TrEMBL record:
This is NADP-dependent aldehyde dehydrogenase. It comes from the Bacteria. Keywords: Oxidoreductase. Residues 11-20 have a biased composition (Basic and acidic residues). It comes from Thermopolyspora flexuosa. One of its GO terms (molecular function) is oxidoreductase activity, acting on the aldehyde or oxo group of donors, NAD or NADP as acceptor.
Length: 495
């Protein structure tokens, strides 16, 4: 027996309309079988035709923009301005991955010619990446477009040649349906599908036709699905982004020279989008003393100026209020508190580095405009506290040019623990670009060798195949001698 899918107004909590029934387990099996049938069709279109499909999707999303933004605003309360920008980012992602597949470097072509004199003798070897097959994608609550149905996971998987089945997020089902209709209009039959419901999501991960999963959401939900994916008779990759408590470090030199700027900028980053970003700065490390106090004063002053707002869902609001209350009990000092429903404002608490080192500080992620100020006494105190943290998606460092030794040590430590380091800036905002990494060691993600944003996101949906002594006429076009593809020949790059 399946339940109903209801669209809810984020601002009032009232039902807007019924979208339809949740997807049954039997329907999941049919949908995934159709995706498997569509796989060779999408794969064999070739890179140029897939690039054109991605560009067509971007154009169709823009054409549906007014309807998409209106539905997303009603279901998330994120505001038309923010959502219009998110739609632009979403369309850019599709066009960006069209560039990625036209470039061809993602195929990682390598050729080693036969050499009878090698030890041992080497046969003719030609390797490239190939699409893995149908994949499942789970949309996020906080980005109803850019990390949802038409999000980066969907764009990168389609670019690779993989059909996509998206599990809609229950926070914005109407937005999901509008976006899904756009993709279905453009793509071959079966190459895209949308499903609803928790049971449907679990069945999707376990369906034998699904070859990989992309997920953005909570650590608890992601870990449950990860466990399903790896406990299958044929375990599959699960690329989960599970949230993060991201450190922002203010060095003594930076506090001395830029206290007001850093405090204000950190508050703006922490409260952006009501703190509902996985990249917000959750832990703010400041040096003890006069200059550190100036940073904290600017941070608190700016945070108190923030206008309380509605969070994405009732569940998120309740979790924020509960998490902020729990943190207040664990912290030494309460700096700011506006954690109440329905409109919520920032909560800031304060602890010292020793509490972090001893595991007695509030270090769990609180989704929303929440932050912890950590006072440290000297470099060793700072490094001991940073070492005690769980790995994260991103870290930010505010330092001065004169602090070379300290800066170098911070880079070394943070490189081991995060996927992106921001220097004299703020971590919110992830560019769609060739060099971007949006990932990190567990629990930030379940696959630290991969990214969910940037050109390398496509690698999650590929696997390598080596062709040994296969006649040239039978090889994929990208592996033939006449192909203009970027490649390595005998280990040397050939452009």
């Amino acid at each position: 027996m399946t339940g109903k899918v209801i669209s809810v107004d984020a601002r009032t909590g009232k039902e807007r309309r019924e979208i339809g029934p949740e997807t049954s387990v039997e329907e999941i099996a049919t949908i995934c079988a159709r995706a498997a049938e569509a796989f060779p069709v999408l794969r064999d279109l070739g890179r140029e035709e897939r690039a054109r499909l991605l560009e067509a999707i971007a154009g169709e999303l823009e054409a549906a923009g007014k309807e998409l933004v209106a539905a997303a605003d009603a279901e998330t309360a994120l505001g038309e301005g923010r959502l219009t920008g998110e739609l632009a980012r979403t369309c850019h992602q599709f066009r960006f991955f069209a560039q990625v597949i036209r470039d061809g470097g993602y195929l990682d072509v390598a050729i080693d010619h036969a050499d009878a004199t090698a030890t041992p003798p080497r046969p003719e070897l030609r390797r490239m990446m190939v699409p893995i097959g149908p994949v499942a994608v789970f949309g996020a609550a906080n980005f109803p477009l850019a990390f949802s149905v038409p999000g980066g996971d969907t764009a990168s998987a389609l670019a690779a040649g993989c059909p996509v089945v998206v599990k809609a997020h229950p926070a914005h089902p109407e937005t999901c349906e509008i976006a899904a209709a756009v993709l279905r209009r453009v793509l071959p039959d079966g190459a895209f599908a949308l499903v609803h419901g928790m049971a449907a999501g679990a069945a999707l991960v376990q369906d034998p036709h699904i070859r990989a999963v992309g997920f953005t959401g909570s650590e608890r939900g992601g870990r449950a699905l990860f466990d399903l994916a790896v406990s299958r008779p044929d375990p599959i990759p699960f690329y989960g982004e599970l949230g993060s408590v991201n450190p922002l470090v203010v060095t003594p030199g930076a506090a001395r020279r830029r206290a007001e700027e850093i405090g204000t900028g950190t508050a703006d980053s922490l409260t952006l989008g009501m703190g509902q970003f996985c990249t917000k700065p959750g832990l703010i490390f400041v040096p003890r003393g006069e200059h550190g106090e100036a940073v904290v004063a600017a941070l608190v002053r700016r945070a108190r100026e923030a206008t309380p707002g509605v969070l994405l869902t009732e569940g998120i609001r309740e979790a924020y209020v509960a998490g902020a209350h729990r943190a207040r009990q664990e912290a030494t000092t309460l700096l700011a508190s506006q954690a109440q429903a329905p409109a919520c404002g920032p909560t800031l608490v304060r602890v010292d580095a020793q509490a972090v080192i001893d595991g007695k500080a509030p270090l769990e992620e609180v989704f929303g405009p929440f932050g912890v100020v950590v006072d440290y006494d000297g470099e060793e105190d700072l490094f001991a506290a940073l070492t005690a943290l769980r790995p994260a998606l991103v870290a930010a460092v505010h330092a001065e040019e004169s602090e070379t030794d300290l800066a170098s040590r911070l880079l070394d430590l943070l490189t081991e623990r995060v996927g992106r380091i921001v220097w004299n800036g703020y971590p919110t905002g992830v560019a769609v670009a060739w060099a971007m990494t949006h990932g990190g060691p567990y629990p930030a993600t379940t696959a630290p060798g991969h990214t969910s944003v940037g050109a390398n996101a496509i690698r999650r949906w590929l696997r390598p195949v080596t062709y040994q002594s296969v006649p040239l006429s039978l090889l994929p076009i990208s592996l033939r001698d006449t192909s203009p593809m970027p490649r390595r020949l005998g280990g040397r790059p050939i452009l």
